[in-house]
C-alpha cells in the first residue's frame, strides 16, 4: 500500500492524518454478509458481531440492552477472582500480553488505596478495537472496570479517551450517565492524538496534569501509579474480557478458544475487505480472518510495533499468542495489516512516522529513531546496506526512557529478517512489487 495516509476513526470529523502511514479504504467487494452490525468513522470501519465480547452489539449500546443480554455482574472477592483469572489465563489485550491476574494481585497487595484506569486512548493509529467497544459495547468495559474497583476497594474509575474522537467520548459519557446509581466515581481524561500517548507512563502523566508523554519509571503502575498509589491500568478490551468472566462464569469463558489458550481476541483487520474489527477465538485459522487472497501476502501483525509475516506464512498458523511467538511473531495490539504494495517500503514509511511520533525525551528516540528511519529509507532506495540499519536497531534497543525505540526496532528487524530477498532486490535498484519487478 506504499504511503497512503491513515484516516482516523471519526476523530472530530477530520480523522488522523499521518505523513507516512498507510491504511486506506479498499472497497467492499467480496465482503462476507450477515456479519456487520456497526460502522464507525468516515471510512466505515465495520464492526462484526462476534462470539463473546461483540455478541450483543446488534442490541445497541444502552445499559438496558446490555443488562438484558448479560445480566447483572456479581461481586466476586479477590481470592476466588484471582483463581478464575488464572484458570482462564486472561492476559492484557493492549500489546504486551501481561497476565491480568498478576497485575490485579500486585495492585491489591501494594500500599495505598488503588485506582482503576481504563485506557481507551488507542494511540496505535491502525487500531480501532477499543473505539469499537466504546461505541458498541461500552457497558461491558464499564462492568469490568467497576468489578475491578470493587474488588480492590477503590472508589474511582478513570476513563482515558482519545481527545480528538468525539464519537468515542460521547458514547462513554452517555454510558456513564446511565450508571448514576453506581457508588463509583468516574473521571474522564482526554489523551493527546499521539502514538506514545497511550503508553502506561504517559497516561499516568496525563492524569497528573502533565504532558501526555512517557517518562522513565522505576516501578510498574500497579505498584506506584496515579498519585503514587497502586493503579490497575489496562485497555478497554481487557476490562471487557474481565466482565465476560464475571458475568457468565469460567465455563462459559472456556467454551471459546482452545484448552491451552481460552477466550477470544479483538482484531483490527486491514485487508481487501476494507477495515473492520472482528472477534476471533484463539485457535482460529488465519484463512478465516483475512480476505481469501491476503493470507498469501505479507502481513504486519500487532501494529506499528509489531512483526512481519512473510507471504503465505500465516496459512499454517492460527490466532494464538503462543503459536505466533514460537515462530517469532506477535499478536501485539491485535492489528492485522496487509499492505497493498511492497512491505519493505511500507516498513520504511512506518519507521519515519514512528520517528516523528517519539516523545523526544531520550537519545534513542530523539537521535536514534530518525537515523534508523533514514537508514531503512536508504535500503529501500538502493543506496545503502542493511548493516547500518541493523546496527542502529541494536543501538536504540533497551536504552530508551520507554518502549518506543524497542518496538520500532522490532518492526524494522522483522522486515529485514522476513524479506531478505526483497532487501537484495532493492539494493540492485529493483522491487518485486513495482510494475516489471526489476533487480
UniProtKB/TrEMBL annotation:
One GO-annotated biological process of the protein: cellular respiration
Pfam entry (one): NADH_4Fe-4S
Keyword hit for Iron-sulfur: yes
Keywords: 4Fe-4S, Flavoprotein, FMN, Iron, Iron-sulfur, Metal-binding
Domain NADH-ubiquinone oxidoreductase 51kDa subunit iron-sulphur binding intervals: 344-389
Gene3D superfamilies assigned to the protein according to its UniProt record, in alphabetical order: 3.10.20.600, NADH-ubiquinone oxidoreductase 51kDa subunit, NADH-ubiquinone oxidoreductase 51kDa subunit, iron-sulphur binding domain
Protein name, per record: NADH-quinone oxidoreductase subunit E
Native source organism of the sequence: Nocardioides immobilis
Lineage, opening ranks: Bacteria, Bacillati, Actinomycetota, Actinomycetes, Propionibacteriales
